[in-house]
Structure prediction request, 465 residues.
Amino acid sequence: MKLWAGRFQKETDTLVNDFNSSIGFDARLYKQDIRGSIAHASMLGSQGIIEPYEAERIVEGLQAILKEIEGDQVEFSLDNEDIHMNIEALLTKRVGDTGKRLHTARSRNDQVATDFRLYVKEEIPVVTGQLLELQKVLVKKARANLDTVMPGYTHLQRAQPTTFGHYMMAYANMLRRDITRLEDCLERMDECPLGAGALATSTYPVDRLATAQALGFAKPVDNSMDAVSDRDYAIELLSALSILMMHLSRFSEEIILWCSWEFQYVELDDAYSTGSSIMPQKKNPDVAELVRGKTGRVYGSLITLLTLMKGLPLAYNKDMQEDKEPVFDAFDTVELCIPVFTAMLDTLTVKGKNMLRAASGGFINATDCADYLVKKGMPFREAYMIVGRLVNMCIKTGESLDTLTLKDFRAISGLFDEDVYDALQLKTCVNGRRVYGGPSEESVLKQVGLIEDFIAARSGAAGEA
Prediction:
C-alpha cells in the first residue's frame, strides 16, 4: 500500500508507477537518507514527540538496515517509488509499528532536500581533492621546465616567447579558481532543510538546530518554503563543474595539438594513448579527446537544471525529482575525468628542443626588438613601425631577426648596436620579463610558491579534519 493511499479510491496505474518512480537513480542516496532519518528520530525522542525508547529502536533499526545495504543484502522495491519509502518500508518490517512513527513532523520534501544537500556536501571535497592532486602535477612540471622556452600564442599564431613552466602555472591558477568556486558553493549551501516539512514546518516542537548540528550543517535554512524549493546550490555546483570542465577541455585541446606531428611539443605515454585499427603508425590522444567531449555532458547537466527550475512556483513540485540525475552524472563525469587527466599529464614527455626550435621561428622576439629601441630613447609607436619593416624584410629574404647583420639593422635605424643580438636571444626575452606573473624563472618560481601554499593550506585543513 502506498504511504499516501488514504485519500485515493483506486490503485495507481502501473504506467504511472513506473513513470513516477525514482528508486532507479536515487538509491545512491541511501546513506544520506539513513543519516537524516537517524538525526530526525533522535530529535523526536529528545523533544518528547515520540517516546525515547521508540527513537532508540528506530535508530538501531536504521543502523542495521545501513549495514545490510552496504553488505549487498537488500533489494530495493520499485513499488516503493523512491529511496525514502524503501527505507521506511524496510524499517517498519524490522521494528513494526514503531517504524511508522519516524515520519512524524517530516515530509518527503524536506527529507529529499536534506539527502541531496548531504550528498553534494560529501562529493565536493572529493572533486577538490582530485584538483589538488592535479595542481601538484602542474607544479612538478613547472619546476622541471622553468627554462624550457616555447612559443606563447594569440589567435593560435606564435606571439611571444614563454616557458612550459609558465604555461603550466596558467592552468594551475585556473584550477585554483575552480577549487575556491567549489568551496564557496559548499559554504553557501551549508544549511539544513530538515524540519521544514512540506513547506510550513510543523505544529510539533521540532528542534531544527539539533538536527542541523547532528548532520554537520552550520545552521538550518532560515525559511521553510525556501528550504524545500531551493536548488540554487545544485545549479551553482553545476556551474562550477562546467567551468572546471571547460578548463580541462582547453588544456586537452592544447595537448591534442602539442602531441600532433605538426607540433611535436610533447609525447604521451603509451599507457595513456591508443592506436588505430587500420593505421599502424597512429598514437591517438584519446584521453584528452574524451575529456574534451565529456565537457558537453556537464554543460548539459547545468542547462537541464536551469531549464527545470525556471518556471516553478513555490514550493515543491514533482519536476524537482529530475534534479538528481544531472548532478549525479556531472559528479560521475568529473570524478572520472580528473584522475585520468592527471595521470596522463604526469607521464607525458616534454620535448624541449622542438619547443625551442618552434620558438626560434615566427619572429616572436619582435616585441623585444621594439623594446630594445624604446630603451634607446625611441617612442614605442616608431619602434613598432621599424621592427615591422625588419620583419617584412626577413620574410622576403628568408632570414630571422637574429640572423640579420648589424648592417641590415642599421640600414633601418642607427640606434641598433651589437647588443641587439643579446636582446633578441629567447632566454633573454623570457628572463627579462620579471614583472609579477610573467615567464621569467624568478617570476614562475613565485607563482609555484603561491600554488604550493594554496595546496598546503588545504592539505593541512584536511589533515586536521
Q: What stands out?
A: Residues 111 and 134 are 36 Å apart (CA to CA). The longest strand covers residues 157-163.
